[in-house]
Specification:
Blueprint lengths: L6 H8 L8 E2 L2 E2 L1 E2 L10 H13 L10 H20 L7 E4 L2 H16 L17 E5 L8 H10 L2 E5 L9 H7 L4 E7 L11 H10 L3 E5 L11 H4 L3 E5 L10 E5 L3 H4 L10 E4 L4 E3 L13 H17 L1 H20 L4 E3 L11 E6 L4 H9 L3 E2 L1 E3 L4 H6 L5 E5 L6 H11 L2 H5 L9
Parallel strand pairs: 3-15, 5-6, 5-7, 7-8, 8-9
Antiparallel strand pairs: 1-2, 4-10, 9-10, 11-12, 13-14, 14-17, 16-17
Length: about 425
Amino acid sequence: MPVALTDTEVRRIRNDFPILEKEVNGKPLVYLDSGATSQNPVSVLEAEQEFYEQRNAAVHRGAHQLAVDATDAFEDARATVAGFVGATDSELVWTANATAGLNLLAYSFSNASVGHAGAAAERFMLAPGDEVLVTEMEHHANLIPWQELCRRTGATLKFIPIDDDGALRLEEADRLITGRTKVLAFTHVSNVLGSINPVQELTAMAHRVGALVVLDACQSAPHLPLDLKALDVDFAVFSGHKMLGPTGIGALYGRAGLLDAMPPFLTGGSMITTVSMSEAQYLPAPQRFEAGTQAVSQAVAFAAAVNYLGETGMERIHRWEMELGQRLVVGLQAIDGVRVLGPVAGRDRTGLAAFDVAGVHAHDVGQFLDARGIAVRVGHHCAQPLHRRLGLSASTRASTYLYNTTDEIDQLLDAVSNVRGYFGVDASGERR
């Protein structure tokens, strides 16, 4: 059984990340915002630069050697990223990010619903009486596209509620998943709560009634071993910039056969076989969903990022982050006036913790921490319904990665313990 990383190993890992040597406000940077965007190791930076210096050309469009080299690099990157999540290269579509992947699905389902494709696309069609099911903890990217899909098709959007601790109410999931459910879309790991949802259990419920399962893997693909085939989901999305890669590149996984049956969303060059002045025929997946010039150098760099993660060991990274997450929660729970969202100490969670300081707005907490060189995320984290359910408008979120040390967690905890005193509020949130 792989063991967790150690502080000594993490300090060596940090040498691969130039930005971590930076000072902020005269203090050494403590970067605890990887849940929003992770940092890049030198190997990722060099991979993108090497592509531009040695291989830059249009892919799938030229017969000259440079175009061949660029296409090979692009498709090799696809195979690498697909293999990282247990998929084949034909099951992975490049997207701009996970949000784009979810919108691709929702709009493709819309196109099926208006008869854009043939009989193979019937299972994606929605109409009045059909239902799409999400959860109360979803990021807006896995909520609003489904809201809009239901608006366009007349289907009904429902959600699985959470309890007061933020856990999904699975008994409600079992009640809500019925023969009317056409799509179940949910997050693997909550970007606010840090909780890990029971993917296989939920997927089995959905598949029993013939529903399609869409997994938001943005907070799981970077942080824990992920085998989408073993999880048995139909679709999944994740983003490069959250897993050591560049911005502007993400991926949509689709089970073999499903992508080929879906009608395209964006149309244009590079995704067709034959075009006349009145109609067009489309390539099979994944190319049918990759119209126009793609983010080629970003894909190459994304592959370098997953290679870095794979070489470090995803199980070891996951175990390390779980240790950091527990250290965070234990420390935060011990501070008077601090409320931690999500699983309490001792319960499984990723290395992420969102919290509320009584009487101090999250933005003020963030500025207080930033003055000490500590970078965290503040706001509703694109999860307004979840915050509203928990009685909050915003929270402060610290999120770790393979390059964070226990000392950095302790620096955060020490700073948070001084927030209320600085702003002159007591543990109940009242001004002194």
